[in-house]
Amino acid sequence: MDDPQPPNPLAAAFPAPPPFWQSFTPENIERISKLRASQNPSRKEENGLPPRILDLPPELRFLQPPEPPVEGVYRCFGDVFNLKDPLPTLQEMSIQQLYTPPPSPSSHLDRALILKRLAKSLLLNFLELTGIMATNPEQYEEKVQDLRTLFINFHHLLNEYRPHQARESLILMMQDQLEKSRRETEGIREVKERVEGVIEGLGRVKLAEFGNGKLGKGKVEIVEEGKDVWETLEKEFS
Amino acid sequence: MADKLTQLQDAVDQLANQFVASLYYVHKHHDLKTLGASDKIREEKKDEAAQREPDIEPVSADEFKAGQKELAQDLIMKEQQIELLISVLPGLDNSETDQERMIRQLEDELKVAEEKRREAVKGKEEVLARLEGVIRSVKRP
Questions:
Q1: Which end of chain A is more exposed for a tag (fewer CB within 10 A), N or C?
Q2: What's the predicted TM-score (pTM) here?
Q3: ipTM > 0.90?
């Protein structure tokens, strides 16, 4: 039984690489880098990518990354996502906003204060709700609505804070990396110095034996010299 | 461990769950009372009670009190946890422009550090080559 239709390459469990990988030959890469170098170097794109070349021969066309999409939707694990997914405001969700929005560029201490107030209100409202439930359970609905509004406000405020936290995490990661890089440099430098010391030590051993005129005085001395070298090495690396 | 914001959101959701759980506990385990002298607590027949989950399962007054107290304490604990999490949110005193400046500065520093690292690696390789030369020139005794 042969299948007349070729299987969809995207639906395979282990999809083949996209066909344009064959364009990335060393010659092609060299050609495009030459073409790029011949472009006006002052016209550098903002995002740090090499400038786009408009009229490329077809075999080089795949070596130039396409423009990043600006809008539209994309699929991921079968779900459709919007490229731009802004956080809907509380007004859009028709939820009463319980706080005055903090002016975003300034410090975020206000935000913490508002969050704390909201948290306290939550507890207080729950207390009121229990009171209502004890005396007049029919009137629960209003209070539950209040609680709901408070919760949503709280979450919304936190979600608004997410970009800020993302930047903060980025800063932390960069600091880590900087630290790591510096430590590595330091480690390499130390090892280098030690090895240099070893080499110097070896040089001294040799020179001293030169001075004593031991060289060329038969087999025994050469063996002795070799021993010194190995001993020095062992000492340095032990 | 999740980031601070997610932790905080989870804590708030837990608080909401605790609200519900507290009300449920009070509803389920309170004692039955009569409102007047003529009232009688209705006795459910054995088979009737077995058929469906009983609505209310009264517990002793002490136990009920203890349960209430525990739930209340848990609520306060969660509240304190939430407030603590709020006060340790990352970068509360940094503004967006501060952050951008810091990121740029770190980027530059990283470039410098990377350059230095590369130089160090190069130097290390040179020294390694020299050492190799020396070792090769030495005959093992």
A1: N
A2: 0.64
A3: no
